[in-house]
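Good morning,

Attaching, inline, the backbone tokens for the sequence recovery test we're adding to the shared suite. The designed sequence is right after.
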């Protein structure tokens, strides 16, 4: 009988579907990852594996996974998986594109408006009893309408973000490893060099995946080229940003603020300097976290496992 390893607690309705396919071994914690040692042991026996970004899939875990046919990643990003190594071992890797596009873009947009209008500071101001009177510039922020927004990474999420900008009368710039003429025509987005994007944008929004090309892309040099009041938003991956350089840039007013849904180290340390900064809004990687979207992501993982175990093509296979 096929063994299906699930590394995080998922709702019964999905477990029941997996039980139709094989024996399910599920880690019963919702917020705690399965310890690496246990994962390495369990994966040796498994035919299919349903994982989250907390699991690092490398040669160490694949070399003994003799029965494994599929790794279904509960995310569109798959930088946690050594896809070449999986391919070498004849293991299919799948991810969850499309189903999370709109939800993730929506979170990015929320983050941009939140930082621009200083919503978290304003809420704390009221909660802490500081609202004693009113002043003309009290907690005044930055307009998104009429501004220039630069999108780094014009994939599906980047395009969805640009669609949301249509009602805001903004100039839209983008940088991507390849041009997207559809986005240029339909969304009135202008392709520019990375430097141009940094220099001209009032809001720089990163939606890119983590690759060898994008790693540390937002470093001291990049921040030094941005406008002094520019706001940087990251909904891609934490390692695209040199966080020390970002902290310096915020401290020295080289940029105006940032909103990050993704961090180099997740969860972020409670004493991390970014958490002490008024002009930084930090979220716990909730880009795709709406109930409907999480259901769709989990269902897609289940459907991919089902396809592979039934000898069919997976729906959303990842290729390097
Ligand atoms: C995931 C994400 O929910 O899809 C991605 O790449 O970053 C999020 O949508 C998160 O990574 C949990 O696995």
């Amino acid at each position: 009988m096929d063994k299906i390893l699930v590394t995080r607690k998922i709702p019964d309705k999905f477990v029941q579907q997996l039980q139709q396919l094989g024996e399910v071994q599920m880690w019963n914690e919702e917020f705690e990852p399965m310890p690496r040692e246990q994962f390495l042991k369990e994966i040796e026996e498994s035919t299919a594996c349903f994982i989250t970004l907390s699991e690092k899939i490398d040669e160490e875990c694949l070399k003994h996974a003799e029965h494994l046919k599929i790794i279904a990643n509960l995310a569109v990003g798959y930088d946690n998986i050594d896809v070449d190594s999986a391919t070498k071992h004849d293991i299919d890797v799948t991810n969850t594109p499309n189903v999370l596009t709109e939800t993730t873009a929506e979170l990015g947009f929320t983050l941009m408006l939140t930082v621009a209008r200083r919503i978290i500071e304003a809420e704390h101001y009221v909660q802490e009893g500081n609202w004693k009177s009113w002043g003309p510039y009290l907690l005044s922020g930055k307009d998104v309408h009429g501004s220039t927004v630069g999108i780094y990474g014009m994939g599906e999420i980047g395009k969805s973000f640009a669609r949301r900008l249509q009602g805001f009368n903004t100039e839209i710039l983008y940088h991507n490893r390849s041009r997207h003429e559809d986005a240029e025509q339909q969304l009135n987005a202008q392709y520019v060099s990375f430097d141009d994007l940094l220099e001209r944008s009032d809001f720089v929004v990163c939606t890119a995946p983590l690759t060898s090309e994008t790693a540390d892309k937002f470093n001291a040099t990049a921040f030094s080229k941005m406008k002094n009041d520019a706001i940087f938003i990251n909904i891609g991956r934490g390692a695209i940003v040199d966080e020390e350089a970002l902290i310096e840039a915020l401290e020295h007013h080289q940029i105006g603020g940032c909103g990050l849904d993704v961090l180099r180290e997740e969860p972020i340390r409670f004493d991390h300097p970014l958490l002490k900064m008024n002009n930084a809004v930090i979220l716990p990687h909730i880009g795709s976290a709406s109930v409907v979207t999480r259901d769709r992501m989990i269902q897609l993982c289940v459907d991919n496992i089902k396809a592979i175990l039934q000898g069919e093509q997976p729906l959303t296979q990842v290729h390097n």
